[in-house]
Amino acid sequence: MATISDHDMVHHQTTLELEPKEFDYSKRSQWLRAAVLGANDGLVSTASLMMGVGAVKKDVRAMILTGFAGLVAGACSMAIGEFVSVYSQLDIEVAQIKRDMSRRDVLEDEVDSLPNPWQAAAASALAFSLGAIVPLLAASFIKPYKVRILVVAVAVTMALAVFGWLGAALGRAPIVKSTIRVVVGGWMAMGITYALTMLIGSKGLH
Question: What are the transmembrane regions (predicted)?
Answer without folding.
Answer: 62-80, 120-142, 149-168, 180-200
